[in-house]
Write a structure and sequence with these properties.
Number of helices: 11
Distance between the termini: 44 Å
Strand content: 25-35%
Bound molecules: flavin-adenine dinucleotide
Order of helices and strands: EHEEHHEHEHEEHEEEEHEEEEHEEEHHH
Helix content: 25-40%
CATH class of the largest domain: Alpha Beta
Largest sheet: 8 strands, mixed
Length: about 400
Amino acid sequence: MAQSYDAIVVGAGINGASTAYHLRLLGAGRVLLLERGGVAAGGTGKSAAVVRQNYSTPLMTRLARKSIEKFRAMRQELGQDGGFEQVGYFMVLAADHVAGQVANVAMQRSLGVDVHMMEDAEIDARLPWLNREGVAGISYEVDGGCADPIRTTEAYVSAFERLGGEVRLKTPVRALTRAGDRITGVLLDEGSLAAGTVVNAGGPWAHFLADSANLELPLRTVREQDTVWEGRPNRPLPTGVISLATDGLYIRPLGQRRFIVGRGFPKEYVDVDPYNYKETADDAIVSLILERLEYRIPSFAGAKLIDSYAALYDVTPDWYPFIGPRRGLAGYCDMNGGSGHGFKVGPAFGEELARWIVTGQVEPDFAGLSHDRIVEGRLFTQTFGGNRG
Ligand SMILES: Cc1cc2nc3c(=O)[nH]c(=O)nc-3n(C[C@H](O)[C@H](O)[C@H](O)COP(=O)(O)OP(=O)(O)OC[C@H]3O[C@@H](n4cnc5c(N)ncnc54)[C@H](O)[C@@H]3O)c2cc1C
């Protein structure tokens, strides 16, 4: 007879790791975390790991806010921290973004986020290195920052194991097993395992698992390129995380004088095969990033390229994740579609999904993330404010 678990989570990225941990914490019983590579082997391991609450909907702002609390308390909760640094998050806006961001800031403040639009004097004091040509406004989120995506994920996996959870790395799941309207478990190379619930946290590979059980899962796989630069010594350089909506770039500090710099919205999103894609950045993108960086922050002139790479994230039709059970299908939950911004919210996603599975109770707004919204035509709409990666 197949070995049996109360829950099996497929994928040890931030979302699978956080879900597995919270399942054990909330008393889900026997829980197994399966990963075909190592911990954070997917998009999580290469994430820029910007952590901010700047969203355009109360749902995502609430979840990002909860996650920041969890990042702050990680050492106490998990026994090790996730490298979270609260260095502040700045959003630099062109004229046509300002009205939207002012509305977002008001909504975020109403939910307790410490964020404001800066006056000129504060901009001069905090961002003295900025070329302000074409800049019409800047918001400043005090609690925002960045984390170490691998340390964060490892912290969840270790805490999960300490709580009695079982982890199997280098263990690909070949298929979900299904009997009628129930997902019954997973198929491994060595045989099948039964589960009360299977959580599909396979990221860019999640749709292959869904396919294996004839489940529709409309995910695109997008290739995201990041670069790492070292600024020259004795130059004024940023200290916080910055989204340059003016230039389609994001910048995050990575230790002394080093910064991850990537292309932010608006940009072209390129679909790739997750089993066969180019893992280095394109020369043209590296040049474009440097050109825009030197223009907006002239003190980066002469910066040295330290690294460049490409990694994947999985995108849903409305850029909100698919999380939770589906109507008419027992034994299955989605936890995928991070859509370029799914690292920062992983701690809260995992907690709320685990509670949904264990207690059957769910916050009404969180229930709206179920894949059922596709079938029922309840997509989230896109508004400016950083919902995209
Ligand atoms: C370059 C880059 C920069 C980013 N920057 C940010 C950012 O600044 N802030 C932010 O919030 N988000 C950011 N994101 C997005 C964020 O990193 C992702 O949304 C998030 O990490 C997704 O986590 P996940 O656990 O859902 O998926 P993944 O990390 O992709 O994990 C899925 C895991 O499932 C495993 N798996 C898949 N199929 C199987 C199978 N059949 N059997 C066993 N295991 C399987 C994979 O090996 C993988 O480890 C960025 C993403 C990229 C690529």
